[in-house]
Amino acid sequence: METAEADITGLCQDIFSKMAMYLTGELTATSENYKLLENMNKMTSLKYLEMKDIAVNTSRNLKDLSQKFAALQPYLDQITLTEQQVAGLEQAAYKLDAYSKKLEAKYKKLERQ
Q1: What 3-state class would DSSP assign to 78?
Q2: Which GO terms describe its molecular function (predicted)?
Q3: Rounded Cα distance, 91 and 25, in Å
């Protein structure tokens, strides 16, 4: 009977030892997963900070460009007005050219008579 008790005690110690190793492995894996998650969260946080900086810089640059465009707007309006005036002068020049050709034709006709 002592041998059976010794066998049972040995088997119990063996199962408890193996169970302890298994649970230690599970806890270690879980701990490593949490460490990995923590590192991923830190990296994500850093990326979001970088993206925030980029967004702030982009916003600042857009504001600067908007101010520069507003400063240039009077000149752009002046260019548009000048372009319209040039187009009007061009039309007047075409009409004047056509009229001078008619006058020239009339003059030549009168000269022949």
Answers
A1: helix
A2: gamma-tubulin binding
A3: 91
SS3 category, 16: helix
Q: What is the mean pLDDT of residues 99-107?
A: 93
- Tell me the mean pLDDT in the region 91-105: 95
Q: State how far the alpha carbon of 71 is from the alpha carbons of 50, 57, 58, 74, in Å.
A: 31, 21, 20, 7
DSSP state of 4: H
Residue type, 84: Q
**Whose CA is closest to 63, among 52, 55, 53, 73?**
55
Q: Tokens for 98?
A: 């056509």
Give CA 2 to chain center in angstroms. 79
SS3 helix, strand, coil % of the chain, rounded to 5?
100, 0, 0
What is the reported pTM? 0.56
Given the structure tokens 């034709």, which residue do they identify?
105
